[in-house]
Amino acid sequence: MHKRNSKSSNAISNEYRNLKGSRRERLIAERKKAGLTQTQLAKKLGCSTATISHLELGRVKPGLDISLGLESYFQQPFEILFPDL
């Protein structure tokens, strides 16, 4: 059985916990302006709630299908929704 190094795992968690940026803020603002929960947006885009959460936290970059879905739904270009990518 492989034992995880809790110190290393904890450092990664702390890194993501403190991650902030314009990408996160803009996407959250657009979703809330539309009156949607993460789950509702995920259903509209055909992805998981976890995907939306990870996008908002800046843990992942959106794939092409998600990018196009977000652009279409919010009527905002990718550069506006994700200015730091």
Q: How would you characterize the overall build of this protein?
A:
The structure is a single chain. The chain is mainly α and 85 residues long. The protein is 66% helix and 0% strand.
Note the topology.
Layout lengths: L5 H12 L4 H12 L4 H8 L3 H9 L6 H11 L3 H4 L4
Keywords for this structure?
0% strand, 6 helices, 85 residues, mainly alpha
What is the structural class? mainly alpha
- The dominant shape is globular
Oligomerization category of the chains in this entry: single chain
Strand content: under 5%
Low-confidence stretches: 6-19
What sequence of helices (H) and strands (E) makes up the elements?
Answer: HHHHHH
Average pLDDT value?
81
How many β strands by DSSP?
0
What gap, in angstroms, lies between the N and C termini?
39 Å
- Biggest sheet features: none
Number of helices: 6
Rg of Cα set: 15 Å
User: How much helix, percentage-wise, in residues?
Assistant: 55-70%
Tell me briefly what this model is.
The protein is mainly alpha-helical and 85 residues long. The protein has helices at residues 6-17, 22-33, 38-45, 49-57, 64-74, 78-81. 12% of the residues are buried.
